Amino acid sequence: MEQTMSDPVVDLLEKVEPLPTAPMILPKLLSALSDPDVDLDEIVLLVAQDPAMAATVLRLCNSAYFADSSPTAELRQAVARVGLYNVYRLVVTACGQSVLSIAQPGWGVEVHDFWKHSVLTGLAAEVLATECGEMGGPMFTAGLLHDFGKLLLASAFETDYGRVSSQAAGDPGKLVEMERISFLVDHAQLGGELLKRWNFPIEVEAAVRWHHSPEVGDGSNLSASIITVADTVAHLIQSSQGSTCAAEATIPGLDRACKRVGFSPAEFQSYVERMREMVTVVDAISQLAA
Questions:
Q1: How many CB atoms lie within 10 A of CB 290?
Q2: Residue 139: how many other CB atoms lie within 10 Å
Q3: Which of 69, 138, 31, 96 is nearest to 285 (CA)?
Q4: For the residues of 40-97, what is the DSSP string, one character each?
Q5: What's the CATH class of domain 103-290?
Q6: Segments of the chain with pLDDT less than 70
Q7: What is the pLDDT of residues 33-77, one digit of tens each?
Q8: Domain ranges in the chain?
Q9: pTM of the entire structure?
């Protein structure tokens, strides 16, 4: 009988128990927001299907970050007040944050730094996508979720992944290399496969899957390049703030990614400085979904 070779990415996903459940609302919201004629009531109906998410949206609307009038307990009014895109941002952030609980101490994921890096990468990717003439929403999503494969590796290998992460010492390129040697897959491949199972658009899946190899993506290398650049910027900003990211670290494929998005070295540095000014927004978004 002919034997077929197993896929290490698929095999590893089977080891993650429990595998994070698909946030069904996200692909639907992303599809709705891509329609320029989307109706407010359509978004309200989607959010209302998830009572916990509806409560989160109401809390956001009544928070100090957005509240400039009297509190409301009516979901349609909350969505209208906050704005459709901010609702989408919040839903993505809340869904992403719900997965963080699978990481345990000693498994190689420092949750606070990880989450701040995710939000910063998401915002940086959104800005860059818009400047490249692409939709910001899908790239915010990809940026926010780009490292979630690390959570899956940590869940599958626990302290063994913690050891690999510690030896990488905050260097993204070294971590990817060590993941491939130790576990036969890297976190980008694993994260992309998870988003495929979650039925996300191909541009989001590919951006996550190839953000450490942006030259590979078949026709999707622009989205992967956007995440590569945004990821690097987030690492550089966090390293200057004393996080565990290595100050000299850059993401593999950065030079090619910068060329793909049209950045000269000077334009890249300007982009870094612009993103530094968004740190307070990052903190606000992180705390809103907490």
A1: 9
A2: 30
A3: 96
A4: HHHHHHHHHTSHHHHHHHHHHHTSTTT-SS-----HHHHHHHH-HHHHHHHHHHHHHH
A5: mainly alpha
A6: 1-6, 17-19, 64-69, 217-220, 241-250, 285-290
A7: 778 788 888 888 888 888 888 887 888 777 766 666 677 888 888
A8: 22-98, 103-290
A9: 0.85
